[in-house]
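Sample 1 of the test manifest.
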Amino acid sequence: MLSYILRRIVATLPVMAIVALFVFSLLYIAPGDPAVVIAGDQASPEDVERIRQSLGLDRPFLVQFGGWVWRILHGDLGTSIFTNLPVSAMIGQRLGPTLSLMIVTLLLTIVVAVPLGVVAAWKAGSLIDRVIMGFAVFGFSLPVFVVGYMLAYIFALELEWLPVQGYTPLSQGFWPWLENLILPAIALGCVYIALVARITRAAMLEVLQQDYIRTAKAKGLGQGGILFIHALKNAAVPIVTVIGIGIALLIGGAVVTESVFAIPGLGRLTIDAILRRDYPVIQGIVLLFSFVYVLVNLMIDVVYTLVDPRIRY
Amino acid sequence: MDRRTVLKGLAGAGSLALTGGLSAPAIAQGAAARTLRFVPQANLANFDPIWGTQYVVRNAAAMVWDTLYGIDSSFRPQRQMVESEEVTDDGTTWTFKLRPGLKFHDGEPVLSKDVVASLTRWSARDPMGLMIKALQQELTAVDDRTFKWVLKQPFPKLLYALGKNNSPCSFIMPERIAQTDPFKQISEYIGSGPLKFAKSEWVPGAKAVFEKFADYSPRQEKSSWLAGGKQVMVDRVEWVIMPDPATAAAALQNGEIDWWENPIADLVPVLKKNKNISVDIGDPLGNIGSFRMNFLYPPFNDVRARRAVLMALSQEDYMRAIVGDDNSLWKPLPGYFTPDTPLYTEVGGEILKGKRDLDAAKKLLAESGYSGQPVTCLVAQDQPITKAMGDVTADLLKKLGMNVDFVATDWGTVGSRRAQKTPPGQGGWNMFHTWHAGADCVNPAPYTAIRANGDKAWFGWPTSEATEKEVASWFEAKNIDEEKAAMGRLNKAAIDDVVYAPTGFFLSYTAWRKNVTGVAKGPLPFFWGVSKSA
């Protein structure tokens, strides 16, 4: 297993290299100029050009790319064109809020979606099943920002139970940390819950038809034990797979959710960097996201061996 | 590793977080009352007011760095860091003396050498600074509190230049920081103003914190814009960046923020209904909407084509697209200068007044030789103001019978493409939309967009000798009457040659919680004099 993990980690290197080249090239040919944004609207073309030169943006593609790769190989993601801060420090500032949001959303999803999917499969064709699947369709259909606004209006403005926006680090207390994440996690989790619930239902329906389930029933096992110990364990592989794939959905959704709830996370940093053409920051974030995605896939493969002892690498 | 180990680890981490969390201190209510939470117009992405000249940087910098002079609400420069000044009879040698007791945020005294270095860096970037630099013979520190500026010829607007609130302002920094190349960003933020920048708490794009500087020595006069006593009444000012206006509106209603610099017009009715919120015009100098036509290529290299567009455009259409039905938020603008300011003029603005004459405009356009070539119109869709104006312009040009190549893009792309001097079909352009802060349009000094010196002019590169002549007249004017006369001639010349198309004058609101007092109207948010009760 350990050698498999090491091989997979080594295999990520060419993937990261291709991502790096692709991102750098794309940004190079994309229209827009950070010097224009820095100089401000009243700046003269000469001022803009001087700023471009001072930032090294007037140098040829290969020189810029070579310099960037050299720095990456030395563990330096570069310096933000705008803030003059190291990209790694900027990402570090934003990692906590995004990780918090994703963890709470993930936990919420697992706690809500898996039982819903199990119950829907158990009561397949009944009113309960239809209600749960109707909710799933609803969750799929509503854009994140609409859910976000609705939740903020009801629970923050009308009921005044939770804050509208912001983020409090965990170091300032568990409840202050959690109360800022509840509404964003529900908004972000809607699509995810819908997806996992549907997949859980489908996987469970298949497992519930198996002979060993009939045998378990014949042995007189309780319904809960059959569903959550025997059936769910055997339906876990596709569920784990979709939870992993869904993390990509979370990364995309976090961009919108962080804007709606003013959470200072990586999603907002990405948008700000793109709008300003802060190339080093964009490149650093994309590299990080691609690394996280590769890592999540690796973790899913490892989790497979935990839920299904037949799988060995 | 097995499942039990994983579960134990997670449980351990959870309980650790829980325990650590519950023991953390809560913010006391008193501290919250001494903290002013403010939502600025944009993200504070960098913090060097000379290197980056965006308004939001200027607004933050005005808290942290002081200036030698400050323009007050009557547009007059008043002494700020300066105690006294003397000028020779021929107007070429200025000697300034600094107030005693001025300190930087690191505790060091403000000395003449710091002023000299700061003015040198500023004058390399500021349009007025460049004019002074061109006349400069020497700028030297005489002693710790005295410095001398010797010019080759008089520059009557010198004190105005040192006190103006237009970006970049001549902020005073320590010498070692001010010696940074003006085209490179500073990395230390040691200020001379009433608030300190808390760099350790800065999360670019999310939060910026400013703390009261206990050793700041305010003037005794009443504060007025950048002039007078800058008395800070709170301990901290927190800038909270909120990209979503709906979130900012909800946070203000909920009391999570105290002051929102510029609520969008659509959300103002909701805020006005809330009994805990005050809403008023924030900046009475407002903004001037505009689109610029490229003087280098047909059809707008012909003044008749430019005049045809001016003749047909309805400023009301543009303003309604920007501010909606609120009539208190806009005014027609038959000229280029900010209404309700001392030098405002409408001389020569007839072409923008009265009923629009589409037929006459079409006739004039035909006379210009326009024969249906595409007109490349750049419109930034991510800026509500430019998007609204772009839609109106597209409709206007179509009514005139023009073939519109509508390029819907983002502001970053417009910003770089507008600098292209290539023909419109080869990466260039014919038109782009923008707007100018009214504070930059009160007179020609900070007004880059009014200049018409061809290659050296702002994007669109207008050429108008008459306009340039009157800009020079204004700079040479010795009194207010001469200034007013020059402004009238300038407005007429610029309209005759259509340096750019003004689409109207518009204002915007600012909103704050009623437990906040002292919010002053002005071209930027002033944090001195603002207090907050629990």
